[in-house]
Amino acid sequence: MPDNRHTNLLRTIVELYRTHWRLFWCIMLPVAVVAISLDIAQFFHFAKLSENEMRNTFTTPSRQVLTATSNINTTSGITPTIASTTNASPRVDWGLTPIPYFGTTDGKGTAWEWKIKFKSLDYGALVLLLLTLCPLSLAVARISRGSGVSETAEELPPSTAREMWRQTGRKALTVFVATLLLLLIVDVGNYLYVLMQWLIPSHSWRFQFELGYILSVVPYIYFMVTLSLYNPCLILENNSLIGIFRRSHALVSRARFRFFGIYLLTGWIAAVITSVLIGVALLVFSMFISELAPVRETLSSLKFLVLFIGADVEVVLPQVLSTPATVAILVVKGLIATFLVPIWAILTTRLYLERVEAIRGATLLH
Description:
Layout: H1 5-57, E1 66-73, E2 77-84, E3 91-94, E4 102-105, E5 111-114, H2 133-144, H3 161-169, H4 172-186, H5 188-199, H6 208-226, H7 230-235, H8 241-252, H9 256-286, H10 293-299, E6 312-316, H11 323-365
Parallel strand pairs: 3-5
Antiparallel strand pairs: 1-2, 1-6, 3-6, 4-5
Protein backbone atom coordinates (compact mmCIF):
# COMPACT_ATOMS: atom_id res chain seq x y z
CA MET A 1 0.00 0.00 0.00
CA PRO A 2 1.30 3.55 -0.66
CA ASP A 3 3.11 5.54 1.99
CA ASN A 4 0.20 7.94 2.41
CA ARG A 5 -2.22 5.16 3.41
CA HIS A 6 -2.94 6.79 6.78
CA THR A 7 -3.93 10.02 5.05
CA ASN A 8 -6.08 8.06 2.60
CA LEU A 9 -7.75 6.19 5.47
CA LEU A 10 -8.54 9.45 7.27
CA ARG A 11 -9.90 10.98 4.07
CA THR A 12 -12.05 7.90 3.46
CA ILE A 13 -13.51 8.02 7.00
CA VAL A 14 -14.36 11.72 6.71
CA GLU A 15 -15.88 11.31 3.24
CA LEU A 16 -17.98 8.27 4.20
CA TYR A 17 -19.30 9.99 7.32
CA ARG A 18 -20.00 13.26 5.52
CA THR A 19 -21.81 11.56 2.64
CA HIS A 20 -23.78 8.94 4.57
CA TRP A 21 -24.32 10.47 8.02
CA ARG A 22 -28.11 10.27 7.65
CA LEU A 23 -27.93 6.50 7.14
CA PHE A 24 -25.57 6.05 10.08
CA TRP A 25 -27.72 8.13 12.43
CA CYS A 26 -30.92 6.38 11.31
CA ILE A 27 -29.25 3.06 12.13
CA MET A 28 -28.16 4.26 15.57
CA LEU A 29 -31.22 6.28 16.59
CA PRO A 30 -33.36 3.47 18.12
CA VAL A 31 -30.50 2.16 20.26
CA ALA A 32 -29.26 5.68 21.09
CA VAL A 33 -32.67 6.73 22.45
CA VAL A 34 -32.81 3.65 24.68
CA ALA A 35 -29.16 4.02 25.79
CA ILE A 36 -29.46 7.72 26.67
CA SER A 37 -32.73 7.12 28.55
CA LEU A 38 -31.16 4.30 30.55
CA ASP A 39 -28.07 6.43 31.21
CA ILE A 40 -30.27 9.16 32.70
CA ALA A 41 -32.17 6.63 34.83
CA GLN A 42 -28.88 5.05 35.92
CA PHE A 43 -27.48 8.42 36.99
CA PHE A 44 -30.38 9.19 39.31
CA HIS A 45 -30.34 5.64 40.67
CA PHE A 46 -26.66 5.89 41.60
CA ALA A 47 -27.18 9.41 42.94
CA LYS A 48 -29.82 8.06 45.32
CA LEU A 49 -27.55 5.19 46.36
CA SER A 50 -24.66 7.61 47.01
CA GLU A 51 -26.86 9.79 49.17
CA ASN A 52 -28.08 6.81 51.21
CA GLU A 53 -24.53 5.47 51.57
CA MET A 54 -23.34 8.85 52.80
CA ARG A 55 -26.06 9.01 55.45
CA ASN A 56 -25.45 5.45 56.68
CA THR A 57 -21.66 5.25 56.51
CA PHE A 58 -19.85 8.56 56.81
CA THR A 59 -19.24 10.34 60.07
CA THR A 60 -17.12 13.49 60.03
CA PRO A 61 -16.09 16.26 62.41
CA SER A 62 -18.65 19.03 62.71
CA ARG A 63 -16.38 21.49 60.91
CA GLN A 64 -16.26 19.28 57.79
CA VAL A 65 -19.52 18.43 56.04
CA LEU A 66 -19.84 15.62 53.50
CA THR A 67 -22.70 15.95 51.08
CA ALA A 68 -24.06 14.32 47.95
CA THR A 69 -23.24 16.52 45.00
CA SER A 70 -22.52 16.57 41.26
CA ASN A 71 -19.16 16.06 39.60
CA ILE A 72 -19.06 18.06 36.34
CA ASN A 73 -16.32 17.18 33.87
CA THR A 74 -15.64 17.35 30.17
CA THR A 75 -15.22 13.58 29.73
CA SER A 76 -18.30 12.01 31.31
CA GLY A 77 -20.43 15.17 31.53
CA ILE A 78 -21.78 14.64 35.02
CA THR A 79 -21.53 11.93 37.68
CA PRO A 80 -22.94 11.72 41.21
CA THR A 81 -20.37 11.95 43.97
CA ILE A 82 -19.83 12.62 47.65
CA ALA A 83 -17.62 15.56 48.51
CA SER A 84 -16.64 17.89 51.31
CA THR A 85 -18.29 21.27 50.92
CA THR A 86 -15.13 22.82 52.31
CA ASN A 87 -12.85 21.31 49.68
CA ALA A 88 -14.59 21.44 46.29
CA SER A 89 -12.13 22.61 43.66
CA PRO A 90 -11.61 22.29 39.91
CA ARG A 91 -9.18 19.78 38.50
CA VAL A 92 -7.57 19.30 35.11
CA ASP A 93 -6.72 15.81 33.80
CA TRP A 94 -4.62 15.55 30.66
CA GLY A 95 -6.03 12.63 28.74
CA LEU A 96 -3.04 11.40 26.77
CA THR A 97 0.60 12.04 27.67
CA PRO A 98 3.71 9.90 28.16
CA ILE A 99 4.54 7.91 31.28
CA PRO A 100 5.28 8.55 34.13
CA TYR A 101 2.26 9.69 36.06
CA PHE A 102 2.74 13.10 37.67
CA GLY A 103 0.50 15.30 39.75
CA THR A 104 0.73 18.58 41.60
CA THR A 105 -1.55 21.11 43.29
CA ASP A 106 -1.27 24.86 42.93
CA GLY A 107 -1.97 27.46 45.61
CA LYS A 108 -5.59 27.87 44.52
CA GLY A 109 -6.47 24.25 45.19
CA THR A 110 -6.46 23.23 41.53
CA ALA A 111 -4.95 19.79 40.91
CA TRP A 112 -3.11 19.20 37.62
CA GLU A 113 -2.63 15.57 36.65
CA TRP A 114 -0.74 14.07 33.71
CA LYS A 115 -1.47 10.42 32.97
CA ILE A 116 -2.21 7.98 30.19
CA LYS A 117 -5.85 6.99 29.76
CA PHE A 118 -6.16 3.95 27.52
CA LYS A 119 -9.46 2.62 28.81
CA SER A 120 -12.15 4.37 26.82
CA LEU A 121 -15.15 2.03 26.98
CA ASP A 122 -18.11 3.43 28.88
CA TYR A 123 -19.48 0.56 30.96
CA GLY A 124 -22.66 2.45 31.73
CA ALA A 125 -25.84 2.29 29.71
CA LEU A 126 -24.14 3.89 26.70
CA VAL A 127 -22.21 0.66 26.18
CA LEU A 128 -25.39 -0.48 24.39
CA LEU A 129 -24.20 1.64 21.47
CA LEU A 130 -21.71 -1.14 20.73
CA LEU A 131 -24.67 -3.18 19.47
CA THR A 132 -24.91 -0.79 16.52
CA LEU A 133 -21.40 -1.61 15.27
CA CYS A 134 -22.59 -4.60 13.24
CA PRO A 135 -25.33 -2.84 11.24
CA LEU A 136 -22.98 0.12 10.80
CA SER A 137 -20.22 -2.19 9.54
CA LEU A 138 -22.67 -3.82 7.15
CA ALA A 139 -23.64 -0.39 5.81
CA VAL A 140 -19.99 0.64 5.35
CA ALA A 141 -19.23 -2.64 3.53
CA ARG A 142 -22.25 -2.18 1.26
CA ILE A 143 -21.15 1.37 0.45
CA SER A 144 -17.59 0.13 -0.21
CA ARG A 145 -18.50 -2.94 -2.26
CA GLY A 146 -17.67 -1.16 -5.51
CA SER A 147 -14.01 -1.07 -4.43
CA GLY A 148 -13.74 -4.82 -4.98
CA VAL A 149 -12.48 -5.57 -1.48
CA SER A 150 -15.75 -6.56 0.14
CA GLU A 151 -16.53 -10.23 0.48
CA THR A 152 -20.22 -9.42 -0.03
CA ALA A 153 -19.91 -8.09 -3.54
CA GLU A 154 -23.01 -9.81 -4.94
CA GLU A 155 -26.12 -7.82 -5.82
CA LEU A 156 -27.69 -6.62 -2.58
CA PRO A 157 -30.76 -4.57 -1.63
CA PRO A 158 -30.36 -0.79 -1.18
CA SER A 159 -28.59 0.27 2.03
CA THR A 160 -31.29 1.53 4.38
CA ALA A 161 -31.42 1.52 8.17
CA ARG A 162 -34.29 -0.98 8.11
CA GLU A 163 -32.38 -3.32 5.78
CA MET A 164 -29.20 -3.10 7.88
CA TRP A 165 -31.11 -4.01 11.04
CA ARG A 166 -33.03 -6.76 9.23
CA GLN A 167 -29.75 -8.37 8.14
CA THR A 168 -28.27 -7.91 11.62
CA GLY A 169 -31.39 -9.37 13.21
CA ARG A 170 -30.61 -12.72 11.61
CA LYS A 171 -27.55 -12.88 13.87
CA ALA A 172 -29.09 -11.02 16.82
CA LEU A 173 -28.14 -13.59 19.46
CA THR A 174 -24.58 -13.87 18.15
CA VAL A 175 -24.23 -10.06 18.04
CA PHE A 176 -25.37 -9.75 21.65
CA VAL A 177 -23.26 -12.62 22.99
CA ALA A 178 -20.16 -11.56 21.02
CA THR A 179 -20.43 -7.98 22.34
CA LEU A 180 -20.79 -9.23 25.91
CA LEU A 181 -17.88 -11.64 25.43
CA LEU A 182 -15.70 -8.84 24.04
CA LEU A 183 -16.35 -6.70 27.14
CA LEU A 184 -15.48 -9.64 29.39
CA ILE A 185 -12.28 -10.49 27.51
CA VAL A 186 -10.81 -6.96 27.37
CA ASP A 187 -11.20 -6.67 31.15
CA VAL A 188 -9.36 -9.92 31.89
CA GLY A 189 -6.48 -7.97 33.47
CA ASN A 190 -8.79 -6.60 36.15
CA TYR A 191 -9.97 -10.12 36.96
CA LEU A 192 -6.36 -11.26 37.35
CA TYR A 193 -5.64 -8.33 39.65
CA VAL A 194 -8.66 -9.08 41.83
CA LEU A 195 -7.68 -12.77 41.93
CA MET A 196 -4.14 -11.87 43.04
CA GLN A 197 -5.53 -9.61 45.75
CA TRP A 198 -7.63 -12.49 47.00
CA LEU A 199 -4.80 -15.06 46.87
CA ILE A 200 -1.91 -12.85 48.05
CA PRO A 201 -2.17 -10.46 51.03
CA SER A 202 -1.78 -6.91 49.74
CA HIS A 203 0.72 -5.97 52.47
CA SER A 204 3.25 -8.37 50.90
CA TRP A 205 3.26 -6.45 47.59
CA ARG A 206 6.01 -3.90 47.08
CA PHE A 207 4.57 -2.42 43.92
CA GLN A 208 0.85 -3.00 44.31
CA PHE A 209 -0.24 0.08 42.35
CA GLU A 210 2.23 -0.51 39.51
CA LEU A 211 1.26 -4.19 39.22
CA GLY A 212 -2.42 -3.34 39.21
CA TYR A 213 -1.87 -0.72 36.50
CA ILE A 214 0.12 -3.14 34.31
CA LEU A 215 -2.41 -5.96 34.72
CA SER A 216 -5.24 -3.57 33.94
CA VAL A 217 -3.79 -1.71 30.94
CA VAL A 218 -1.55 -4.17 29.07
CA PRO A 219 -4.12 -6.98 28.52
CA TYR A 220 -6.75 -4.32 27.76
CA ILE A 221 -4.63 -2.82 24.97
CA TYR A 222 -3.68 -6.23 23.57
CA PHE A 223 -7.23 -7.57 23.37
CA MET A 224 -8.76 -4.31 22.19
CA VAL A 225 -6.34 -4.26 19.24
CA THR A 226 -6.42 -7.99 18.51
CA LEU A 227 -10.22 -8.32 18.66
CA SER A 228 -11.01 -4.91 17.17
CA LEU A 229 -12.29 -6.37 13.89
CA TYR A 230 -14.88 -8.59 15.56
CA ASN A 231 -17.82 -6.55 14.22
CA PRO A 232 -17.04 -6.89 10.46
CA CYS A 233 -15.89 -10.48 11.01
CA LEU A 234 -19.26 -11.18 12.61
CA ILE A 235 -21.60 -9.47 10.19
CA LEU A 236 -19.71 -9.93 6.89
CA GLU A 237 -18.58 -13.55 7.30
CA ASN A 238 -20.16 -16.80 8.35
CA ASN A 239 -18.18 -17.51 11.52
CA SER A 240 -18.94 -19.28 14.77
CA LEU A 241 -18.83 -17.30 18.01
CA ILE A 242 -15.23 -18.35 18.66
CA GLY A 243 -14.40 -18.10 14.96
CA ILE A 244 -15.26 -14.38 15.00
CA PHE A 245 -12.45 -13.61 17.44
CA ARG A 246 -10.04 -16.06 15.81
CA ARG A 247 -10.63 -14.39 12.45
CA SER A 248 -10.03 -10.93 13.95
CA HIS A 249 -6.81 -12.20 15.53
CA ALA A 250 -5.65 -13.62 12.18
CA LEU A 251 -6.34 -10.38 10.31
CA VAL A 252 -4.65 -8.16 12.89
CA SER A 253 -1.69 -10.42 13.72
CA ARG A 254 0.75 -9.10 11.11
CA ALA A 255 -0.21 -5.45 11.47
CA ARG A 256 -0.74 -5.18 15.22
CA PHE A 257 1.55 -2.18 15.83
CA ARG A 258 0.04 -0.26 12.93
CA PHE A 259 -3.46 -0.95 14.28
CA PHE A 260 -2.37 0.14 17.75
CA GLY A 261 -1.00 3.43 16.41
CA ILE A 262 -4.17 4.11 14.43
CA TYR A 263 -6.41 3.33 17.40
CA LEU A 264 -4.30 5.44 19.75
CA LEU A 265 -4.58 8.42 17.41
CA THR A 266 -8.30 7.80 16.96
CA GLY A 267 -8.77 7.63 20.73
CA TRP A 268 -6.96 10.93 21.17
CA ILE A 269 -9.08 12.60 18.47
CA ALA A 270 -12.22 11.23 20.13
CA ALA A 271 -11.03 12.61 23.49
CA VAL A 272 -10.49 16.04 21.94
CA ILE A 273 -13.93 16.02 20.30
CA THR A 274 -15.60 14.91 23.53
CA SER A 275 -13.78 17.43 25.73
CA VAL A 276 -14.40 20.37 23.40
CA LEU A 277 -18.07 19.62 22.70
CA ILE A 278 -18.97 18.93 26.33
CA GLY A 279 -16.91 21.96 27.42
CA VAL A 280 -18.74 24.23 24.98
CA ALA A 281 -22.11 22.78 26.05
CA LEU A 282 -21.29 23.38 29.72
CA LEU A 283 -20.28 26.97 28.98
CA VAL A 284 -23.55 27.56 27.12
CA PHE A 285 -25.59 25.98 29.92
CA SER A 286 -23.74 28.06 32.53
CA MET A 287 -25.06 31.24 30.90
CA PHE A 288 -28.61 30.20 31.84
CA ILE A 289 -28.07 28.01 34.92
CA SER A 290 -26.64 29.81 37.94
CA GLU A 291 -25.62 26.50 39.57
CA LEU A 292 -23.02 26.05 36.82
CA ALA A 293 -21.26 29.35 37.58
CA PRO A 294 -18.19 27.49 38.97
CA VAL A 295 -17.86 25.72 35.60
CA ARG A 296 -17.93 29.04 33.75
CA GLU A 297 -15.33 30.50 36.09
CA THR A 298 -13.06 27.48 35.53
CA LEU A 299 -13.42 27.21 31.76
CA SER A 300 -13.30 30.93 31.09
CA SER A 301 -9.58 30.90 31.84
CA LEU A 302 -6.79 29.37 29.78
CA LYS A 303 -7.92 25.97 31.05
CA PHE A 304 -10.46 25.95 28.24
CA LEU A 305 -7.61 25.71 25.74
CA VAL A 306 -6.43 22.39 27.20
CA LEU A 307 -9.69 20.86 25.98
CA PHE A 308 -8.21 21.03 22.49
CA ILE A 309 -5.56 18.46 23.48
CA GLY A 310 -8.09 16.09 25.04
CA ALA A 311 -7.86 17.24 28.65
CA ASP A 312 -10.56 16.63 31.24
CA VAL A 313 -11.58 19.67 33.29
CA GLU A 314 -13.43 18.64 36.42
CA VAL A 315 -15.49 20.75 38.82
CA VAL A 316 -17.18 19.40 41.95
CA LEU A 317 -20.22 21.55 42.62
CA PRO A 318 -21.10 22.52 46.20
CA GLN A 319 -24.64 21.15 45.70
CA VAL A 320 -26.59 18.65 43.62
CA LEU A 321 -27.38 20.03 40.19
CA SER A 322 -31.06 20.47 39.30
CA THR A 323 -32.80 17.64 37.46
CA PRO A 324 -33.40 19.52 34.14
CA ALA A 325 -29.76 20.63 33.96
CA THR A 326 -28.53 17.13 34.79
CA VAL A 327 -30.72 15.59 32.09
CA ALA A 328 -29.54 18.18 29.54
CA ILE A 329 -25.86 17.38 30.22
CA LEU A 330 -26.49 13.62 30.02
CA VAL A 331 -28.33 14.03 26.71
CA VAL A 332 -25.39 16.01 25.29
CA LYS A 333 -22.99 13.31 26.47
CA GLY A 334 -25.13 10.60 24.86
CA LEU A 335 -25.40 12.48 21.55
CA ILE A 336 -21.61 12.94 21.43
CA ALA A 337 -21.12 9.19 22.03
CA THR A 338 -23.65 8.52 19.26
CA PHE A 339 -21.70 10.82 16.95
CA LEU A 340 -18.41 9.00 17.64
CA VAL A 341 -19.51 5.35 17.28
CA PRO A 342 -19.88 5.47 13.44
CA ILE A 343 -16.28 6.69 13.23
CA TRP A 344 -15.13 3.49 14.96
CA ALA A 345 -17.40 1.37 12.76
CA ILE A 346 -16.07 2.99 9.56
CA LEU A 347 -12.46 2.68 10.76
CA THR A 348 -12.63 -1.00 11.74
CA THR A 349 -14.62 -1.98 8.65
CA ARG A 350 -12.22 -0.22 6.30
CA LEU A 351 -9.24 -1.82 8.07
CA TYR A 352 -10.97 -5.19 7.76
CA LEU A 353 -11.51 -4.72 4.03
CA GLU A 354 -7.91 -3.58 3.65
CA ARG A 355 -6.54 -6.64 5.44
CA VAL A 356 -8.79 -9.01 3.47
CA GLU A 357 -7.51 -7.47 0.25
CA ALA A 358 -3.88 -7.68 1.40
CA ILE A 359 -4.18 -11.34 2.42
CA ARG A 360 -5.99 -12.20 -0.80
CA GLY A 361 -3.29 -10.46 -2.85
CA ALA A 362 -0.52 -12.29 -0.97
CA THR A 363 -2.29 -15.60 -1.57
CA LEU A 364 -2.57 -14.94 -5.30
CA LEU A 365 1.13 -14.08 -5.51
CA HIS A 366 2.01 -17.44 -4.01
